[in-house]
Amino acid sequence: SRYIKVSGYRSDVAIQAAMQCNWKTGEGSITFRLRNVKLERGAKATDWSPAPEDLLTDAEAAQTYSTKSYVDQTARTVSLGVVEEYKNGQHGSALATASDITAAKDSITSTVSQTYLSKTDATNTYLNKNTAASTYATKTEVKQTSDSLTVTISSAMSKAESAATAASNAQNTANAAKNNAATAQSTANTAKTNAAAAQSTANTANSNAQNAQNRVGNLETCIKMTSDGVRVGKISNGNFTGYSALVNSDGSFDILNASGAVSSRFSDSMIELGKNHSAATISMLNGSGSIVANTNGLDISSPKNVQLTAGGKNSSQTFMVKGDGVYYKNRKIFPPFNVLEKQNYSDITIEAYSHAGFVSVNVRRWNQSGTALFPPASNRSIIGKLNPDYAPKQGIDVLVGIQDNAWLEMSIEPNGNIGIYALYSDHGINVTSFGGLASYLPKNALL
Questions:
Q1: What angle (nearest 5°) sits at the alpha carbon of residue 421, between those of residues 420 and 426?
Q2: I want to staple 320 with a disulfide (CB 3.0 to 4.6 A). Which of 145, 190, 327, 407 is the partner?
Q3: How many angstroms separate the CA atoms of 87 and 68, rounded?
């Protein structure tokens, strides 16, 4: 170090100091740069230190605002920058902004940044450009080359903001966990309810199964599986007592007596009654109708009519037994019944009956006073009429008397008219008595 004594009379007069050095070398020249120059008043020189007015007092250190500008030049680039700092306390946090322009041979880059430093980062009085560039909170950058223009905007969160964000995220996570826990609790409650319902259902099923088991146990006293099928009846000491029913494996149904013999059988195409018996009865309508079969024959009884039909229930081929006789095709055939519908003369008796499919007509005049005059055939007298269903298919003439070589004839016509006329007489004949019988198959004969 070189110390130069300078004398002066006034402190406000500019003081200039110069130092000249002669340095000889073979060729060329040498440039010297002076730094850390300290000018002090007094007779004793001291080491370099900042000027007292450049040092901050405690009050000033509590709040400081400063600005720094710089120019950096290298062989390849030239950089211009300005850094402005607001520092709260010498060792507190700091807010700084920095702008920088760098020109290179092939690009121009412009950057503006703003940073908020923590207590640890703010120990220096001023921020240099590297610190400002590396600890920014927000930063914009424009880079221009010969063939491109790039604009970049970036930001970073401070530790406090990061912590707040982390805390918020943690709170959200906690809330989500709480919600999930509530959902899990609700699911658990639902599962508990479902489990209770399932348990109740299982208990009910178990109770029903027990009841069914009890019923099966009760049925064991009346149901038994055999090689032929299922047999039902009263069982005592493992054996059936009295009659029982057997459902065969082929689907038929048997009634068995105490010894196990079949008394009756019902199958798909046959009903057998009274097996191993001398009689069998089918009772219908609380006993009002019945069919009884025994060694004497078959007895069919009914409170009204018994009808047998051939050709289906709507067929006219019916045979019916009523209280007053037997009918075929709704015509009475037994016992004999009257088929006379009309009688015109009281002194002439007419009897007309149907019996076993035949019709008999008997006409007579006996023990009457006076005579009866009957005309010839062209004008015969109609003395009565039969039921047309019982009339002959063709007219019938029967001799019923003779008088004076003339015959007295009875005619039965297909329309049922019964007539008397004189044959072989042009004027008719007078007769006192006559009689005759005609039998024939009617036009709707049953045979």
A1: 165
A2: 327
A3: 13
Of 81, 75, 62, 80, residue with least CA distance to 127: 81
Residue 307 near residue 300 (C-beta atoms within 8 A): no
242-247 average pLDDT score: 90
The distance in angstroms from the start CA to the end CA of the chain is: 173
What is the DSSP pairing of strand 229-236 with strand 325-328?
A: unpaired
Q: What is the maximal distance between C-alpha atoms in the chain? A: 219
Residue-wise pLDDT tens digits, 163-187 = 677 788 889 998 998 999 899 899 9
Mean pLDDT for the stretch of residues 368-381: 89
| Closest by CA position to 111, among listed 88, 129, 126 | 129
14-44 per-residue burial string, b: 16 or more CB within 10 A, e: under 16:
eeeeeeeeeeeeeeeeeeeeeeeeeeeeeee
Q: How far from 75 is each of 67, 99, 178, 252, 305, CA to CA, in Å?
A: 27, 22, 63, 121, 143
Q: How far apart are CA 315 and CA 322, in angstroms?
A: 18
Report the pLDDT value the prediction gives residue 91, as an integer from 0 to 100. Answer: 38
Tens of pLDDT, residues 252-272: 999 998 888 898 999 988 898
Q: Are 401 and 429 in contact (CB under 8 A)?
A: no
DSSP string, 263-314: EEEE-SS-EE--TTSS-EEEEETTTTEEEEEETTEEEEE-SS-EEEEESSTT
pTM here is 0.33
* Cβ contact 447:357 at 8 Å: yes
Q: Give the HSE-up count for residue 182: Cα atoms under 13 Å, Cβ half-sphere.
A: 5
Task: For residue 127, name the pLDDT band (cuts at 50, 70, 90).
Answer: very low
Amino acid at 124: N
Among 130-134, 166-170, 207-211, 405-409, which stretch is predicted with the lowest mean pLDDT?
A: 130-134
Number of Cβ atoms within 10 Å of the Cβ of 372? 19
Q: Which long-range contacts (CB under 8 A, 24 or more apart) does 336-339 make?
A: 339/386, 339/387, 339/389, 339/390
| Cα gap 432→372, rounded to integer Å | 6
